[in-house]
Specification:
This protein has 4 helices and 6 strands, in the order ααββαββββα. With 163 residues, it is of the alpha+beta class.
Length: 163
């Protein structure tokens, strides 16, 4: 009987923590989805709403000589300008294998992606997000990605959407 009471008490103490973690995970997924929806719609205000102040952005890639390069963006403004400037093709960034880790008010999210301009494949890689909890919810304070045009293993469900 004592063991049963201990197990019940343990479950009652752990359940709210698990529930909170699931809620945080869903909110973080929503923040990331909002970023890509804003990009798809060309809505720089929507994109801007998911970022914290300040925010840093970086891209890791290989240059023409196949040397590794890390390009750090000077500000988010150029990204917002690019999103908000009308362009003929919709920007579709498809993600999969999203993994989220949370410790208190800090979270990281990692996912594979493929970027398409309209129906045309542009590049693939990995997105790495760092987020923090604010008074109004989770916000991205750092976004880094890798980029390549070859050796992309994109799920068939995604590639079939762009044929």
């Amino acid at each position: 009987m004592r063991i049963l009471n201990y197990l019940l008490l343990s479950a009652l103490l752990v359940f709210p923590l698990v529930s909170k973690a699931q809620s945080d995970q869903e909110e973080i997924k929503s923040v990331i989805a909002r970023l890509f929806t804003g990009m798809q719609r060309g809505d720089s205000a929507m994109v801007h709403s998911v970022f914290s102040k300040p925010v840093t952005m970086a891209t890791a890639f290989r240059n023409r000589d196949q040397q590794p390069v890390l390009r750090q963006e000077g500000s988010i403004q150029s990204f917002l300008n690019a999103v908000g400037t009308p362009h003929d093709e919709v920007w579709n960034e498809e993600i999969w294998d999203l993994t989220i880790r949370i410790d208190g008010d800090l979270a990281s999210a990692w996912c594979n992606f493929a970027f398409y301009r309209g129906k045309t494949f542009s590049h693939c890689g990995v997105n790495s997000f760092h987020l923090h909890r604010t008074a109004v919810g989770w916000k991205i304070f750092h976004l880094a990605d890798s980029r390549r045009t070859a050796d992309c293993v994109i799920p068939a469900a995604i590639t079939s959407k762009y044929k």
